[in-house]
Structures are given as C-alpha cells and as structure tokens.
C-alpha cells in the first residue's frame, strides 16, 4: 500500500551550538527523508535557533520525522504545523534590456519590487507564499531572468 | 582544583564510579594515558584492537548494567572503534567512548592521524561532543555519562583534542546538570495504563511480547511477576533472552525469523499484543502487514520514536518499562479473574505440534547438541556471549537462560567478531561466572587477536568454536535461496585453532565426539584459562524453523523429518 505523500512544514527550535545543523541534516539523509527547503537563523535574545524545514512524506513518515528530530539532544521543540502563515523570498536578476516597468508591475503583484539597478542588470525581489513565488517565477520567464535565488520558506503558526 | 584536561578525565571517571576501562593508546590520547599510568582508581585493560575495546566495554555494560568505558586515539584508532559504537547504538548499550583528537590548531589541516571523528560518529551514537575548551570538560563528561545511561540508553562519544588534555583549568564535578532540551519521559500515563489493564481484561488471547528494553530497564523480575499474576503467556525477542527463565511454563519461546513455531503462531493468533521494551524489528515481525493481524497493540517504550514506527500502537505508553510494569502490577486485580487456560493450551499445542528440536546424528556432532550440553553442564553458572551467524541463533534457541544479563550478543547490527571481546568484558564485570563465547569458524577470526588480551589480563574466556568449515548462515541462505551456489562461503582452508590458541598462551582443544567435548569443557573450566574448544560439527546443518526474509510469521519453514538430508 502506497501512502499518500504530502508537503509539510516543520519548525525546530535547537540550541545554537556547533554542528547542530549537521545533526538535523544527517538525520534526514540517514533515514531517507526529503528536505525541500531549509532555513535557519538565531532567535533574537536567546541561545536558540529556529529551523524551518519543508519536507514531504506520508503521515507516518512525518510523525517519525518529528519524533526522530525530538530525540536529538540539542533539540528543544518540534512543531509540525497545520495552520500557518508561510512566506518565502526570491531574488531575480534580469538583463537591463528587459522591460523594467513590466517587471516592476509584476513584482508589485507579488509583494515585491526592483531593489537594484546596475549597469548591466536589474535585481528584483518578491516575498510571498511559496506557491505564489512559484507562479511568479513562471510568469517572469519571458523576461529572460539570468539568475534566481529562493530563500526557502519560513513559517509561523497562526 | 586546577588540573589538566587529562587529569580531569581520570577524576571524572573516578567520580562516575568507573572500575574498568578498555582501551588502546596512541599519539593524540597520550596525555590521558600518562595520567592513567599514575592513577589507581580504575583498572585499564589493553585490548589488541580498538574495535575489541568497545565490544569489551559493551560486554562489561551488558553484564553489569553500568556504563561501559572505552578509550582510543585519533584517526585509525577512532575509525576502528566505529563498528563498536554502531553496535552499541543499535542494541541500546550505554557507553562513554573517549577519543583523542589532533590539537585544535591542526584540526582541518589533514594532520597526521586526523579524522573528523564527531562527523563520523554522529549517525551511530546517541550523542557526541568535540571538546574545545578544558573548562567545559567536567560538564561534558558528566553529561556524557548521564545521557548514555538515561532514557533509551546508548553510546556517547567524547572527542578531546590533544592540547585540551594539556590545558589547565578548574575542575569541579559537583555541578548540577541542566539539560533543558533532554528530559526522558520515564513515568507512564496513569490513565492510559488503566485503559491497558481493561483491554487486557477484555482480551481472550493476550500475549506479552518482551524486548531487550526489559533488561535495560532492570525490569525482568517485575515482568516475571506481572506475567505470573496475569497468567498470560509471553514470547521473548532475541535481545530479551533471560527475562523469563527457560523453564517458565508461561514462556512460549523466542519469536521471529528463527523463533519457535509456537511463538510465531501465538503472535499470529493473539488478539492483544502487550509489547514491553521491544521495537518490532524486521527479524521479529516478518511481513509487517501480516504481523499480529488480529490484535490490538499495547506498546510500552521509553523511546517515543519506537512507538508506531512500524506497527501502529492502539495503546501507546511512553515510559520506563519498570515504572509502567509496577503501575500495571498495582492494577492487576482487574484481570485477576480472567481465565486464559484454553488460550495457553492452544499455544502449548503449537509447541507439541512443532517443538523446537533437532535430530542427532550417530556419526557427527550436531552444533545444537553442543549448546544444549553446555547448558546442562554449566547452566546458570555461565554467562554467555556469541558471535554472529548460525551458532548465534542456536545459542538463543537451545541455551537454558535463567536470568537477565546472562546473555550478550550483537542483535541489531549483527557484528561478527563481537563475541570474544564482549566475553572478556563480561568476565571483567562478573568474575565469578564462567564466561563462554559460542562462535563459528568465520566469526572467531574477526577478533582472535584478543587471545593476547585475555591471556595477559587473566580473563579466562572459553571460546567454543562450532566449526562447520562454512560461513554457515550465508551458506544456509545459499542452500535455500541461491540454488546451492556457495559463493565464497566454503572455508576449507583454516588455521589450526589449537595451535592458534597455544601461540598466544591459551589452551586449545579439538573435539569430534561427545566424550571429547565433555572432557575438554571440564578441563578448560577447571584450569580457568583462556581456551579455544574447536568442535567439528556436521557441515550442512540449517537453523530451523525459519521465516524467510519478508515472509509471514505463520508461514514457517520447518525442520525436516529425520532421515531426510537437510542439505
């Protein structure tokens, strides 16, 4: 029986110490779990960091992921989210020859704008739900983006 | 107290009550060995290979219930020890393994004997540390011992750069640990336990499924009481041998791939599995979708990740088995009036239909006879270890275990070469019992250099080598599933095991008959020396019964009738 695989967002609060990120990623690779994206940054005014991991798997796999994460010694808390606000940022580099106002209008529709104009390129940013960022990246294909970087999702429970 | 990092290691081991350390010196750990030379807090046993040091520490821990300690140097010293770490991790054995590391200034420069030790041990330890400041050392060592022994036990690795062992800092071991991210859940949920007792009372064919966690939790005698108060039959996993005595009428037997027919049938027929400290390993369950198909599942385990990992638990209880069983005992009245006699009778009928047995041969010794015979002669007076393969399964099937911690074997990882060094550790922890290692002609060569350690440190382990001139278990699979193509399993060319033992100062025996075997064992035990008893056994004996990998428990290959060649 093949169980349905679904996309899930897991947040992990860890002690901000050496090699803690390796412990997390080793666990995922060692047990054959997927990482779609992973972001990590210190939590202000604390000794902890917060990781946001987008992963996929069956309900059973997701349950194992959260339990196995919790077993790691420096892990304080694991949240497997249901009702969340989720955002992702992307930076996109376009040739200067492209239509700047078209690009700017598109960016604005996705909570973004042009953030830098250089001699040869312009750089735009958007920040939105991951699926909408995906849509945006489809829409701007015709403007010949030279380089795209996505931040990975961050999320907070409602 | 201002002392060096190396001295701190010694003082911390003293504070932890360590009386035996297994290890092997080398460049990066020399400062610590210099302090070992000066101290008399504990005994150091020099093994002849780092892997053996860790296995010996495992054996020591298994027999004593204490945290085993091993010490090794950087680079190859550490990589040799990795198999031991992985073994202890799979079988939840509490260890603290201390390794030397190149000085901090050289880390990352590909220095002599440098390896990223914590990077390697991360996936095969419960936790690990790279110590970068001697000021942290007392806390780290204290945490290491605490983490190793608490919760689901396991190995903890502490990697100490050479300059840190030379650094002088304040030593205070009287610190209170505050691990806010690590708080094992030891007390079972009372309401859930009540529900379990009601479920047991409603069940018609309940079955205890006992795992190694019962032994780790030192709960065997409480479990014996619970089993008898309820009158519910029990099956044991390989790791749980000795929880119930072999002659306990409520012990059905071992279950799983080479478990007894009755145990596997009982598991297939039960309507309520009560799993205590077991983890539903694939060698136990066979085909998952057919495992205990008609049953609700109670799962008691200290490790939440073990619950509902493979088999969904209808009654999950996270907690220390001992605590939970004590709670269950206090609620036992609920099932007092239940009568499981007809269920017990049908389980007994399975045992009568296909008992766990073997056929003797007039010409050649059968390996199972040897194990049974040692049981008859030594029984409770021996502690048993094994290597890995056919002899390991036969030992579990035929040795009459009477108490927990009598048996140490590599269950999860299946490490050939485990038995002999582990038996040394068992002997160091339990010197009053005879230390027997059942091994094969394949396994024994994987750590036979430990003859030197055992002879030097007077750890009289009796190694009983069941010699069938084969890597027997692999050969068995080749016979059954590979059309008898014996790829690289036929060990016709062998050392002279008698001379091998003698070359190291031990005693060697080669026996072909029952009389010779009895005499050799008696002699080795009386002389109290390190011994190899090489027993020439029938070459093509198979371990039966058997659930083929991925098959259903109720679909066993059974022992063929006497007279048929089971080649």
Please explain how this structure is put together.
The complex is a heterodimer of chains A (158) and B (567). With 158 residues, chain A is an alpha+beta fold. Helices cover 28% and strands 41% of the residues of chain A. In chain A, the strands form two sheets. In chain A, strands 5, 6, 7, 8 and 9 form a five-stranded antiparallel β-sheet that branches. A four-stranded antiparallel β-sheet of chain A has the order 2-3-1-4, covered by helices on one side. The two termini of chain A are 34 Å apart. With 567 residues, chain B is α/β, with parallel strands linked by helices. Chain B folds into three domains: 2-170, Thiamin diphosphate (ThDP)-binding fold, Pyr/PP domains (Rossmann fold, 3-Layer(aba) Sandwich), CATH 3.40.50.970; 190-353, TPP-binding domain (Rossmann fold, 3-Layer(aba) Sandwich); 367-536, 3-Layer(aba) Sandwich (Rossmann fold), CATH 3.40.50. Chain B contains 21 helices and 20 strands. A six-stranded parallel β-sheet of chain B has the order 3-2-4-5-7-6, sandwiched between helices. A six-stranded parallel β-sheet of chain B has the order 11-10-9-12-13-14, with helices on both faces. A six-stranded parallel β-sheet of chain B has the order 16-15-17-18-20-19, sandwiched between helices. In chain B, strand 19 (507-511), helix 21 (514-527) and strand 20 (531-536) form a beta-alpha-beta unit. In chain B, helix 1 packs parallel to helix 6 (137-149) and helix 3 (50-64) crosses helix 17. Chains A and B meet through helix 1 and helix 2 of A and loops of B.
Number of strands of chain B: 20
Number of H/I helices of chain A: 4
How big is the Rg of chain A? 18 Å
Can you tell me the CATH superfamily of the largest domain in chain A?
A: ACT domain
Structural category of chain A: alpha+beta
Distance between the termini of chain A: 34 Å
pLDDT averaged residue by residue of chain B: 96
User: Spans of chain B of 5+ residues with little confidence (pLDDT < 50)?
Assistant: 563-567
As an assembly, this protein is: heterodimer
Rg of chain B, rounded, reads: 24 Å
Low-pLDDT parts of chain A are none
**What is the name of the CATH class of the largest domain in chain A?**
Alpha Beta
Question: Average pLDDT across residues of chain A?
Answer: 94
Give the strand content of chain A.
35-45%
Task: Give a short account of the largest sheet of chain B.
Answer: 6 strands, parallel
* Count of alpha/pi helices of chain B: 21
